[in-house]
């Protein structure tokens, strides 16, 4: 399951700093998620979704139809 945070940030023209301010998630954590170095915890996913005004499922790409 792929995290779409980088694509969402690109589509909304948002910087790591802006996303960090909007969501309360640290810039380093956002960078590590975008670069595929870590998988976000459920708490982090919920913070990101709430701050970006998205559904949790909007943050993921799944091969399941």
TrEMBL record:
<dbReference type="InterPro" id="IPR001387">
    <property type="entry name" value="Cro/C1-type_HTH"/>
</dbReference>
<feature type="domain" description="HTH cro/C1-type">
    <location>
        <begin position="12"/>
        <end position="59"/>
    </location>
</feature>
<protein>
    <submittedName>
        <fullName>XRE family transcriptional regulator</fullName>
    </submittedName>
</protein>
<dbReference type="InterPro" id="IPR010982">
    <property type="entry name" value="Lambda_DNA-bd_dom_sf"/>
</dbReference>
<dbReference type="Pfam" id="PF01381">
    <property type="entry name" value="HTH_3"/>
</dbReference>
<dbReference type="GO" id="GO:0003677">
    <property type="term" value="F:DNA binding"/>
</dbReference>
